Amino acid sequence: MNNNLFTYCLRLGDNGLILSHRIAEYCSAGPQLEEDLAITNVGLDLLGQAESFLKYAADIKGGGTTEDDLAFKRKEKEYLCVHLTEIPNIDYAYIMARQFLMDVYNYYLFQKLTASKDTVIAGISAKAIKEITYHLSRSADWIVRLGQGTDESHLRIQTAFNDLWMFTDELFETDEIEKDLANKGIGVDSSSLKEDWKNKTKEIFSQAGLQTPTIEKHSLAYGKFGSHTEYLGFLLAEMQHIPLLYPDAKW
Amino acid sequence: MSKDNQGDLWEVFIQPKAGRPHKHVGSLHAYDKEMAMKSARDLYTRRQEGVGIWIVKAEEIISSQAADAESFFDPADDKIYRHPTFYELPDGIKHI
Hints:
The structure holds two protein chains of two kinds. Helix content of chain A is about 65%, strand content about 0%. By secondary structure, chain A is mainly alpha-helical. Chain A has a single domain (about 5-245), classed as Ferritin (Up-down Bundle). The longest helix of chain A has 29 residues, at about 35-60. In chain B, strand 1 and strand 2 (about 25-30) form a beta hairpin. Chain B has a domain at about 1-60: Phenylacetic acid degradation B (Ubiquitin-like (UB roll)), CATH 3.10.20. A three-stranded antiparallel β-sheet of chain B has the order 2-1-3, with helices on one face. Chain B has two helices and three strands, in the order E-E-H-E-H. The mean pLDDT of chain B is about 90. Chain B is flat.
């Protein structure tokens, strides 16, 4: 089994899986019907991407493992999503700020992954980049409108970014696994995405009239290496409880 | 602007295939045309309904009035000769 590739696919899959679950929690609670459906669409796209990566990871692991086993039957420390995806839905400003920060990251990451020498990763990414391009366009539109809207909307979106900013340094953390896969032309070294990410967020913040917060390292242990925020355990308890109660259920 | 303002009402038209006419499918609320277009895409094309979208602000549509129905539409009732049903269609003509 290729351990590095397995871990890398879990990271890619878990980011989509956990963020999509956060979005799913919000289904039916959007500020208006149009927005409720639109954000749920984004969640479904992310879930589809997660399913593809977890299926690939399950194939690599072998022994009859399925993508559902990986999605629902792992322990907390075996999930490898970044902290930013775990943050609860505090209000719509936080939801859109979290989404925008992940969309910019995913946009540059998946652009590079479409050129992966691993044909499965390249294939999943070629489909995903179309979805992500739309996600980014949509969330950027909302950031500009909330930033340029009323005093209240400006304050709330700026507050959300101020609070979430500390979670963005993790996005560019790298390790031997990533470096190995990047050297082989299969994966991407996350630190290589930082410049593009900074420029894009700066561009949209300038259109929105928002201040870029300063990055402070918030943690010595990161989600992508298996250490999570206090929020993930509760999310998993809810997400996993049906498969745990009915392990052989089919639907 | 009232607190529960959801923006203007827009009417949405979807083109099912290239070359086919856009058809009215419904409406939505949005604050501006860019967001109206994105909402139209999210609401009305998520099941592959189309390849093109038109949106029009509902207030820009000029509509006939129900009160005018008699003078507008009834005079056509007894003019059956305006229907092209007396022509023989050549073989191979589609969409009629």
